[in-house]
């Protein structure tokens, strides 16, 4: 039989407890509502206005499911902090014996604002701060990111800590707009989403690509776990592989925040259903603010500086060798060692951009004590060190094509890795005559004609 009782405690206001008839339950047993015990308590010592609410599931052997309006939780004990005054409905259910039992909701009355709970740089970056709102767009034009969509491992997270890795499945791929449209996303206007802090944490999404719907809801940003919860709506989105598309993602309420600053944001959801047999992954949506896009001034069109350089006669050899005694080159392993340079433009800014699916620990080891020395002593010669194994030989240069051939040898090797150069001829696809000391040189080792794209290694002095 259900019964209610009040618990009086110093400076604590408990709202509801449903008592159980039995103290012990067997595994797999389906419980009645009368057997389920939980409390919802406002901590008036922490907040006289009742902003801090403690949730407790007191029924062993059950999985709790809390929905407190600004977010959800599966913890046995959790603490929720409401920044704004108002009435909040706490919904509680448990999974017991393979069934879900829904309990009666509890209404929490918060009598005053406590804005310290949203006075955080991340809340300000997302919403513009208390009393403001901010509009966000998918980066469909690749203004800041390579494109509107990226792929990460399911254990990736906040990129400014732990190298963005919080488990064993960590990798990323940031395809450009040429790869995204039309196979991964339809090209078009994906609308605007707005995060506000005007009296409440309000969310609004206008979605032309989803039959023109408008969603109005609320949100909560956990600055500790870097998780964003959106209630009664979902972020701007698009994803259309051959099978499940966005239906391959079960949870459009909870998002992993990978990055967030004044102008840019990355939000990830887990693709937990099978999509073309590719398995689980985190689908990451790349956003920029509407204000940032409207103030954006496109750079002068054309290839990146230094792409497909034109050398004077003998200039490429001189760049490689310097003086007759030679120049020693090594991979830019601590900077930006690799890139995919398509039509003159690359996308990586550092080794973290392709970490664990491109650059990896094995490449760190391969590059740690490896270098190549080019010189002009008695001809065009090279000395190559691959982790203590020294080889020597000669090299040739084709000035018409900017190709360099190591006679009888290859560039740095990482046996068994797909990025390991397989040919002894490589092309200088990006170089900076007169600035080689500060900018290095890019050796293209593999060309994709379909994408007009070079895979290249960045060597520095």
**What class would the helix/strand composition place it in?**
mainly beta
Order of strands in the sheet with the most strands?
10-13-14-15-16-17-18-19
Helix count equals 6
Per DSSP E runs of 2 or more residues, the count of β-strands stands at: 28
Task: Please characterize this protein's 3D structure.
The protein has 461 residues and is mainly beta. It is built from six helices and 28 strands. The strands form four sheets. The protein has an eight-stranded antiparallel barrel with strand order 10-13-14-15-16-17-18-19. An eight-stranded antiparallel barrel has the order 20-22-23-24-25-26-27-28. Strands 4, 5, 7, 8 and 9 form a five-stranded antiparallel sheet that branches. A hairpin with a 3-residue loop joins strand 17 (254-260) and strand 18. The radius of gyration is 29 Å and the shape is elongated. Residues 1-14 and 16-23 have low confidence and may be disordered.
How are the SSEs placed, and which strands pair?
Layout: E1 12-17, E2 38-43, E3 52-57, E4 63-67, E5 72-73, E6 77-81, E7 86-96, E8 99-102, E9 106-110, H1 121-127, E10 133-138, E11 149-152, E12 172-173, H2 177-180, E13 192-197, E14 201-207, E15 213-222, E16 227-231, E17 254-260, E18 264-271, E19 281-289, H3 290-295, H4 315-321, E20 327-331, E21 338-342, H5 361-367, E22 370-375, E23 381-386, E24 389-398, E25 403-406, E26 425-431, H6 436-439, E27 441-448, E28 453-460
Antiparallel strand pairs: 1-2, 2-3, 3-6, 4-5, 4-7, 7-8, 7-9, 10-13, 10-19, 11-12, 11-19, 13-14, 14-15, 15-16, 16-17, 17-18, 18-19, 20-22, 20-28, 21-28, 22-23, 23-24, 24-25, 25-26, 26-27, 27-28
């Amino acid at each position: 039989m259900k019964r209610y009782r009040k618990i009086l405690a110093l400076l604590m206001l408990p709202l509801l407890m449903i008592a159980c008839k039995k103290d012990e339950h067997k595994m797999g047993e389906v419980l009645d509502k009368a057997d389920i015990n939980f409390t919802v308590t406002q901590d008036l010592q922490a907040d006289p206005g009742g902003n801090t609410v403690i949730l407790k599931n007191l029924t062993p052997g059950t999985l709790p499911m809390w929905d407190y309006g600004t977010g959800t939780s599966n913890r046995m004990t959790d603490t929720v902090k409401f920044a704004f005054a108002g009435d909040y409905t706490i919904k509680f259910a448990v999974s017991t014996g393979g069934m879900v039992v829904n309990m009666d909701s509890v209404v929490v009355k918060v009598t005053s604002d406590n804005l310290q709970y949203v006075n955080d740089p991340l809340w300000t970056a997302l919403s513009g701060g208390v009393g403001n709102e901010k509009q966000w767009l998918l980066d469909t034009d690749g203004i800041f990111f390579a494109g509107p969509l990226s792929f990460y491992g399911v254990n990736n997270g906040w990129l400014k800590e732990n190298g963005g890795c919080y488990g064993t499945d960590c990798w990323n791929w940031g395809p450009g707009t040429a790869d995204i449209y039309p196979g991964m996303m339809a090209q078009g206007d994906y609308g605007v989403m707005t995060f506000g802090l005007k009296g409440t944490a309000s969310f609004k999404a206008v979605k032309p690509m989803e039959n023109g719907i408008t969603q109005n809801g609320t949100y909560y940003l956990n600055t500790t776990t870097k998780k964003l919860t959106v209630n009664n709506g979902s972020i701007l989105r698009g994803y259309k592989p051959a099978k499940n598309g966005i239906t391959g993602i079960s949870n459009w309420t909870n998002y992993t925040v990978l990055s967030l600053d004044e102008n840019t944001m990355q939000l990830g959801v887990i693709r937990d259903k099978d999509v073309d047999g590719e398995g689980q992954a985190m689908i990451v949506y790349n956003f920029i603010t509407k204000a940032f896009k409207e103030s954006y001034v496109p750079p002068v069109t054309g290839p990146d500086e230094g792409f497909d350089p034109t050398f004077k006669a003998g200039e490429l050899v001189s760049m490689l060798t310097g003086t007759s005694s030679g120049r020693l080159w090594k991979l830019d392993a601590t900077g930006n060692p690799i890139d995919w340079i398509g039509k003159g433009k690359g996308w990586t800014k550092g080794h973290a951009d392709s970490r664990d699916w491109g650059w990896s620990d094995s490449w760190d080891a391969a590059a740690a004590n490896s270098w190549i020395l080019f010189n002009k002593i008695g001809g065009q010669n090279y000395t190559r060190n691959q982790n203590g194994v020294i080889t020597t030989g000669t090299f040739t240069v084709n000035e018409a094509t900017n190709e360099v051939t190591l006679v009888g040898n290859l560039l740095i090797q990482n046996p068994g890795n797909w990025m390991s150069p397989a040919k002894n001829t490589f092309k200088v696809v990006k170089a900076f005559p007169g600035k080689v000391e500060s900018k290095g040189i890019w050796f293209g080792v593999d060309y994709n004609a379909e994408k007009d794209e070079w895979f290249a290694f960045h060597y520095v002095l």
